[in-house]
Design brief:
Length: 477
Amino acid sequence: MKNLRLVLPLILLILLVLVFTGCKGIVPSPGATEDLTISGKIKMPFACCTIEEPIFEEDTGHYTDAWSIIPDAVVELRDAQKCDKLLASTFSDENGEYTFDNVEPGLYIITTYCPVQKKYILKDVVEKKAVTGADAGIPDCDSTALALIIEILNDCFGNYNCFKKNSTIYRLARDIGENIGEVDLPLIEAHDDFGNLDDEDYNDLVDLVCDQLQGCCIGPGFTPGPGPGPTPNPCAGNEAPSITVPPDVTVSPNPPSPYSWTVTASDSDGILGTLEFSLDSVSPTPTSAFSIDASSGVVSWDPDCADIDGRVDTTYTITVSVSDGCDTDTASFKVTLDAEDCICESAKLSYFSLEINEGSNWNEYLATFDPDINEYTVSSKKNASHFRFTVNAECPNDVTLQYNWYRGDQCGGTWLTGESGYTGNPPTAWRTINSGGTYPTDTNDRPVCQHGGNALFVKVTNGTEVVIYKVNVNRSN
């Protein structure tokens, strides 16, 4: 009994720790590295994705045991909320495995394509949480059905070869989505019409999707077993489409303006119907992103001067492709940004305001500023106490602005930067400022010597061009 009395509190303490840990989760230690990956494995029915030799794994009790591992499958990653925009794509390795790096927490849709029958697809849905990586597992009938509903809810459902718009599958997925009204995974999976392969309802969404997938998208009822079997080939006799890109062009990024170019394509056989355009790459990578409309082939770009590399014309190579679901044609065109409209070489100010506080009023002393005049002399009143100034550069994005202030000899003869002595020449040390700002920002740095002898210097540097403005602030008699 005594031993039991000693042990029971210890057991209760352990249980409390487990309860609180389970409720709050595991908190990573300081300095822990967050895993930003999503990974998974691609398997497909071999009769529908006829790679050279099927690759089977040991049985796990799941219906995908009869499916083959698929190397070299294209795998695409999209944000579930913006699933019409491709975030990243990769290929499965020799073991059918894939990984996406640098993925922020969120809900994602994964689409994978058979490397030989490219219209044959599977989909997956994965929720990436903070700190840990996400294992999406193997896309299957259930995950594909779930992804279709999310795509309908977020208005990015594609007119897929297996799941055409207005088909029975599409209508049922649409009805489930409308009934639930939001992307709520537990609610979708619990819906009566979503179903699974284990129940007796053969007309729920998962069963219908599986009939299509295991029937190679040519009709329900065919379920391939391990090893070779009937090999329907939806790409038999297909000829690749032909893509035509616009001619190379030079445009100006300043003032910023949206540009668009149309990529066209032809498909002589029309076996698989709709052509789909994609943006493969842009080199070098611009600050402002290119985009392409998958159905119309319109490439859009809204460049600005930030897309100019240095001060010279910058040429971007845009590579696009078109697919008929079986074969792809690729081509490139070039867009050159004319740097001339983005180069500003002036080292002058466009605006200079100097105000001096006299009594309780701020009075302007450079109302007639001329950018071509570099030195001014003004006379403040006897009760002058503080100053402030504002400058704008003619080329605010290209210049460096600096200033310094000298307080007259009769008030100590001091510089803001701490250097000593004044001969009337510009200082050797400066404080950096921004165009459009009001300075000094610290009111303690604003004293004016009422006896005169003050001087404000503003230095503008643009490349090798340097202009220094000087304002002598004396006392009126």
